[in-house]
Specification:
The two termini are about 15 Å apart. The chain has 3 domains: about 1-80 and about 180-280 and about 475-490, 3-Layer(aba) Sandwich (Rossmann fold), CATH 3.40.50.2000; about 85-170, no CATH class; about 300-460, Rossmann fold. Helix 6 runs parallel beside helix 9 (about 235-255). It has a 7-stranded mixed β-sheet. It has a 6-stranded parallel β-sheet with strand order 10-9-8-11-12-13, sandwiched between helices. About 45% of the residues lie in helices and about 10% in strands. It is an alpha/beta fold. It is globular. Keywords: Plasmid. Pfam families: DUF3492, Glyco_trans_1_4.
């Protein structure tokens, strides 16, 4: 789907943002970061290729005029149009797909992942891949490979239903390969995973340098998500194998990787990224837009802000609050933030837990708030209970507002907080409750922490620093990254299926 918007700035640098489930179709921390980047550089022409759910998601951000085109690539929308491959096209595609799946199943064949991926990209661009993956030939290839001797997955006795399920999941995950691909400028993937697929294809076909910014660790979050997914082990092993090899391919091929914290850097180096290709760039906020929040509420309140999602682990926060309330009966927990479509069951579970613990009246789900500063001002302490984070905006915004914080030790949280807040292990309600009680009992300590937290933001995490850094990176990659990327294309050029990729949908 194509949403034309605004006019192109002639002669300006061109950047294509590659997003998944975020900007400009959703709210949240990564979307805020994208909006800050775009609005902070009005002299740069931006496009957006957004991987979405159904393709019917509205644009919810006020997109500035220098964003030229927004392309929605739905992963779970209507079946993509296209033609079923026949003859030599079908045979070559079957061979490439067999190489691709073999790489996912056999550690000895992982070097074939990249060449096979780019071959599949050619078929996807021609409209043949999705149709092929919905056919019997693709399922037959997987079932045959699963039963090869020497493969660990064979011991789990995968079934035909497993093959159907796994093939369908791969078909959806590979839909972003159908394009469009950026052909000039810089492709900036704002997460790993499927959002990077058009960028990898653009690098391979046109030499467009790929910039990767990971806020959370995409691969780690897929591992966490699939722990409770309703699939048998053979399906999980295949799909997680895809995400792992995709992460490694992205880390190897990106011209530059800009994690939001040093924690992500460790994952990226472990995944094959060259250390000299990684540059940490912290998220930033405008301290003037997040001034000191003013007086605390008269009654003890723990405040939380974010999207209602399992990765935010509100269940641990609610359990911790129950322990706090056993000591401070007047305490309240106020939860600010929307519930993404499909997350209603998780919110219901959290509300049921609060009721089960006997604190339903003291735990309030406030929904999205018009001014996020009100969420921080609402609490004596701002809480963060996530099991995975990058460099969370809610934390540095709360710090800029001068509020004391209690946060889980995940991602870049400790880097953000320093000694200006309390950090506790994730999934530990008792530790979280103890930290909250410690601060609730000491108003002077909360005040001092809040003052030092705001000073830390002003010194290290301002929005101006972030925007200036990325402006320099865009210029650097535009001037020299293209030549390095073209050299990489020539060095790694695989055998591909079909012709060169489509031009953008607008031209």
């Amino acid at each position: 789907m194509h949403f034309p918007h605004g006019a192109r700035h002639s002669g300006a640098s061109r950047v294509t943002l590659l997003t998944e489930g975020t900007y400009p179709h959703s709210h949240g921390g990564v979307s805020v970061w994208c909006d800050q980047l775009v609005t902070g550089m009005p002299d740069i022409a931006f496009d957006v290729i957004a991987v979405t759910g159904t393709g019917r998601e509205p644009v919810v951000w006020d997109v500035p005029a220098h964003v030229g085109r927004i392309f929605s690539v739905p992963m779970w929308g209507p079946t993509p149009s296209g033609q079923h491959p026949r003859g030599h096209h079908r045979q070559r595609l079957a061979e490439s797909y067999e190489q691709f799946v073999t790489a996912l199943l056999d550690p000895r064949a992982e070097d074939g992942f990249g060449p096979a991926l780019y071959a599949l990209a050619g078929a996807a661009e021609e409209g043949r891949l999705s149709s092929f993956l919905r056919g019997d030939r693709a399922i037959g290839i997987l079932t045959a490979l699963w039963n090869r001797s020497g493969l660990a997955v064979r011991e789990a006795r995968p079934t035909l239903q497993d093959a159907v399920t796994a093939t369908a999941l791969l078909e959806h995950a590979l839909r972003p390969l159908a394009g469009p691909y950026p052909e000039v400028g810089v492709a900036h993937a704002v997460s790993g995973g499927v959002a990077a697929l058009p960028g990898l294809a653009a690098l391979q076909r046109h030499g467009v340098p790929l910039l990767l910014t990971e806020h959370g660790v995409y691969l780690r979050e897929r591992y966490l998500g699939y722990r409770t997914a309703p699939y048998r082990w053979p399906v999980k092993a295949l799909v997680l194998g895809f995400f792992r090899l995709l992460a490694e391919e992205t880390y190897r091929r990106a011209a530059l990787i800009t994690p939001g914290n040093h924690y992500n850097r460790l994952w990226e180096e472990h995944g094959g990224a060259a250390p000299d290709s990684i540059r940490t760039v912290y998220n930033g906020v405008d301290p003037a837009a997040f001034p000191p929040a003013g007086p605390e509420p008269s009654d003890p309140v723990l405040s939380w802000a974010g999207r209602v999602d399992p990765i935010k682990d509100l269940e641990t926060l609610i359990r911790a609050f129950a322990l706090v309330r056993a000591r401070v009966p007047t305490a309240r927990l106020r939860l600010f933030g929307g519930t993404p479509r499909g997350g209603e069951a998780y919110r219901d579970r959290c509300e049921a837990l609060a009721a089960e613990l006997g604190h339903a009246a003291a735990v309030t789900f406030e929904g999205r708030v018009e001014d996020i500063r009100d969420a921080y001002a609402a609490g004596n302490i701002v809480m963060l209970s996530s099991i995975s984070e990058g460099f969370p905006f809610t934390l540095i915004e709360a710090m800029s507002c001068g509020r004391a914080t209690v946060s889980t030790d995940v991602g870049g949280v400790r880097e953000a907080v320093g000694d200006t807040g309390l950090v506790v292990p994730p999934r530990d309600p008792a530790a979280m409750a103890d930290a909250a009680l410690e601060l609730l009992a000491d108003a002077e300590r909360r005040r001092s922490m809040g003052e030092r937290a705001r000073l830390r933001v002003i010194e290290q995490f301002t929005l101006r620093q972030t925007i200036d850094t990325f402006r320099s990176i865009y210029q650097e990659l535009s001037e020299s990254g293209g030549r390095r990327a073209l050299s990489a294309v020539e060095e790694h050029a695989p055998t591909t299926v079909g012709r060169s990729p489509l031009r953008s949908a607008a031209g």
